[in-house]
Design goal:
Rossmann fold; seven-stranded parallel sheet; alpha/beta
């Protein structure tokens, strides 16, 4: 019996791989126990309990970027967060801490180090955040999703994929029933079973530029015989729609079916999305988020170099681009097949197994 503390949260990019590893841990040995460490504000508050794991809360403490009142309070609040995590580790007799980045991970790394508990870090993005840069200094092992991620002791493990995506990857490989499964997936969303399908998604929160451009391009896409499954995200003001060739929803809890239903995608370039699309072999036009440290541009470097996707700057993703370039791409079945093969060859479908093996190796050494 081993007790695991998995730290991360805030976004799906942190929570989904955390939950994928949690399921693998408990599937391997029912005597293993997993606790998740997150904040009381992120997606983990919904996703972790829904999967049957207990969520332990720690304060959400963004690293201060400028000298102000918060910056002076931060060290004391951070020390308090470390003390909270140390209490959790002692209470639950934690044997190992695995961190996925985000606000909860930094105090978890330091608490584990101070108590002599081994740490494993998983970095989802090509450019690591400050929490995982910190954790890598203390870690017994570091797993990365992308080969060029600049962290010491890095092992390329890929992204731990959700179980339903792993099942999809296995079902796609040489399945004679794939056309029927694809038709049924389209019917699930109210789409025509035999029409070329474009998936549009900006991640769990949505993407304003992508949403507005696709909304302005609906007539052009329809005229080209392209039907659209448009996931606008929870913050969008666009209302849900179900029509003959355009379905718009705020959130999708069956992304495996959304991917299966689609021939090509337009998407932001979050690490989970890029990893899932590549593993399944879904060609995509990636529109990296234009704000922040630019990690999304680097997340797609490998799949684009392999020929499995294209990248368009946020400012360039316009109705003109859709009419001129996107329609031509979606209508070119030969090119989409070539891109699909290239994407799948560049992807890593067994990231969960690889990360579990890394964690198990640390436990064996201990």
């Amino acid at each position: 019996m081993t007790n695991f503390l998995l730290a991360g949260g805030g976004t799906a990019g942190h929570v989904n791989p955390l939950l994928a590893l949690a399921d693998e841990i408990t599937d391997r040995d029912a005597n293993n126990t997993v606790w998740a460490l997150g904040t009381s504000e992120g997606l983990e508050t919904k996703l972790v309990p829904a999967k049957g794991y207990e969520l332990l809360a720690v304060a959400r403490l963004p690293f201060p970027r400028k000298l102000n009142a918060y910056a002076f309070k931060f060290p004391f609040a951070f020390l308090k967060a470390i003390a909270t995590v140390k209490r959790y580790i002692r209470l639950h007799k934690i044997d190992i801490v695995v961190g996925f980045g985000g606000y909860a991970s930094a105090p978890a790394y330091i608490a584990a180090k101070q108590l002599g508990v081994p740490v494993v870090v998983h970095e989802a993005n090509a450019l690591p955040g400050w929490a995982n840069k910190l954790g890598a200094k203390y870690a017994a092992a570091v797993g990365v999703t992308f080969a060029l991620t600049p962290l010491p002791k890095a092992h390329l493990v890929g992204m731990p994929l959700r179980k339903e995506i792993e099942i999809l990857v296995d079902s796609i490989a040489g399945s004679p029933d794939l056309p029927l499964a694809k038709a049924n997936a389209r019917k699930f969303f109210g789409l025509a079973p035999d029409s070329t399908t474009l998936l549009v998604t900006g991640g769990s929160l949505g993407a304003k530029r992508i949403n507005e451009t696709i909304e302005a391009s609906r007539k052009v896409l329809s005229a080209a015989g392209i039907q659209v499954l448009h996931i606008v995200g929870g913050k969008s003001d666009l209302e849900p729609i179900v029509s003959t060739d355009y379905v718009r929803i705020a959130y999708c809890d069956r992304m495996d079916l959304a991917i299966l239903a689609s021939d090509v995608a337009v998407s932001r370039a979050g690490s989970s999305t890029v990893s899932e699309f590549a593993a399944v072999g879904l060609p995509a036009v990636y529109v990296p988020y234009a704000v922040g440290n630019g990690e999304q541009r680097f997340n797609v470097a490998d799949v684009i170099a392999a020929g499995g996707g294209l990248m368009v700057e946020d400012k360039d993703f316009s109705a003109e681009y859709v009419a001129r370039d996107l329609v031509a791409l979606v209508s070119n079945s030969k090119r989409l097949l070539e891109m699909s093969i290239a994407a799948r060859e560049s992807g890593i479908a067994d990231g969960t197994d690889r990360l579990y093996a890394l964690v198990a190796g640390v436990l064996s050494a201990k």
